[in-house]
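Page 42, continued from yesterday. The earlier attempt failed because a stray header line got pasted into the input along with the sequence. Redoing it now with the clean sequence only.
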Amino acid sequence: MSLNLWLLYVSLAAAVIASPGPSALLCVSHAVSHGARRTVATIVGGITASMTLMALSALGLGAVIAASDTWFQTIKWAGAAYLVYLGISAWRTRPATKQTDAAEQADAGVPAAVPAALHTAGSAWKLYRKGFMVGIGNPKDLLFFSALFPQFLDPSAPFAMQMTILGATWMVLDGSIMFAYALCGAKMMARLASGGAGQWFHRVTGGAFIAAGGLLATAQR
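This time it went through. Structure tokens are written below.
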């Protein structure tokens, strides 16, 4: 792959990834609730979803879904339903406070001397799973990969090496840009802290997830 072609791919991929969407919104929301460091699990989940869709595209399943209205609608409605579920969950989330954290630790039988971060470390899998589900639930991404990659592939060059370069580049860009969103969310957390402002943030985020689910539900092939 020539340097000029790779740079063109980097600029296009960065623009696509940086465009605000459900994954970026989820990273901001998780950073506000859990901090930027723990949101890395969410980011890894989203990257895993992207790599899965990329692999499916390379196998030609993107073209199958493009031709099958049933498959497209199934994935679309499943993704839309999950976004609405996240929206309702965010709407009902209580702002975190020191008092509520201590109470939750006491209810769980965790000594007060144990840091809250250690007590909640097991939820990293939940953050990863949410990141993956949001990323994998949009059939448009699979169609995008199917349409994008052929433009940067040279039929005369080794296919595996080219896909490795494109995939690794996407992973680095996706991780970096989503972590930047998470850092913005962490700064918002420091300002919102708790109380009314935090409650309103969760409600706005919940409404945005529900709206994203509604937009996905109206998507066409």
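Notes: The radius of gyration is 19 Å.
Reminder to self: strip header lines before submitting.
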